[in-house]
Amino acid sequence: MQTQLAPASQLQAQSTRLSFAQIVILASLVLWLYGPILVRLFMQWSTDPDFSHGFLVPLFSGFLVWRDRARFAQLVPRPSWTGLGLIAFSLFTLIVGRLGAELFLARFSLLLLLAGMIVFFLGWNFFRAALFPWAFLVLMIPIPAIMFNQIAFPLQLLASRLASATLPLFDVPVFREGNVINLATKSLEVAKACSGIRSLLSLITVAIIYGVLTEKRLWVRTLLALASVPIAVMANGIRIIVIGLLVRYWTPDAADGYFHAYWGWVVFVLSLAMLYGLHALVRNLWRDGGTHE
């Protein structure tokens, strides 16, 4: 009587399967290490309008993995010891981030840990297959304050210059001092919240999601993601111009209170409309490749 030997790939796959108890232990260790960091990250998404798009990011990454579940099921696990190096590096990054009070490093170390665990337990082939959903998770982490300020201030100046150059065309005299636009009846300060960075970060995230869901062509997805930057800047400039016109020809209160908050939503909707318009133009000019149904 002869016994049939299972293929080597099948034996390797069986040996790398984690039991439910092992998964629970690993998850518990990760939560023990990153629980406070995740809670603080969730609270920042809830209270900081600049990063409220963070809720969408892990949900969409999870959706991408679920959508490609058949492809993942066909992969044969090839665990690699190099994953331990990534895990060790992620823990080192966590320690540096905690000791240096640098939230970005501490939060990013979680993504490094996730990459290391995928490579260690499943292999580089699994990580390559999950590379885009993993990389997309970076967008859920608020950028460091020093980088945020370096981006926000030039956007403030750009928006104020655009408005001060355009408003005189509508017979609105202006005098600009840095990021402050002086009108006849009121001074408009293009503050950090009005710089456009809020809509910029959110629009980049939405543009990537929109491109993945509606386009098969990689170059079109890339174009939409890159175009979200000038679109956000242009839409925010239009916002300040319109506010200046309302202050000049209607009421100075158009720059404060309800009007100010309301125009933030208008800018984002305008940005989405411009992004969709660009996509429609590209589809009409280059029809080959098609879109997702």
Question: Helix- and strand-based class?
Answer: mainly alpha
What proportion strand? Answer: under 5%
Helicity, as a percent range: 55-70%
Task: Tell me which oligomeric state these chains represent.
Answer: single chain
Please list the strands of the largest sheet in the order they lie side by side.
1-2-3
| Poorly predicted sequence stretches spanning 5 or more consecutive residues | 1-16
- The global form is elongated
DSSP helix count?
12
Largest sheet: 3 strands, antiparallel
What is the number of beta strands?
A: 3
Mean pLDDT, to the nearest integer, reads 82
Quote the distance from N terminus to C terminus: 55 Å
- Measured on Cα atoms, how large is the radius of gyration? 24 Å
| N-to-C series of helices and strands | HHHHHHHHHEEEHHH
Keywords for this entry:
293 residues; disordered N terminus; three-stranded antiparallel beta sheet; mainly alpha; elongated
Explain what you see.
There is one protein chain. This protein is mainly alpha-helical and 293 residues long. It contains twelve helices and three strands, in the order H-H-H-H-H-H-H-H-H-E-E-E-H-H-H. It has helices at residues 8-16, 20-47, 56-67, 69-74, 82-99, 103-121, 124-129, 131-136, 145-166, 197-214, 218-249, 257-285; strands spanning 175-177, 180-182, 187-189. Strands 1-2-3 form a three-stranded antiparallel β-sheet, covered by helices on one side. Strand 2 (180-182) and strand 3 (187-189) form a beta hairpin. The protein is elongated.
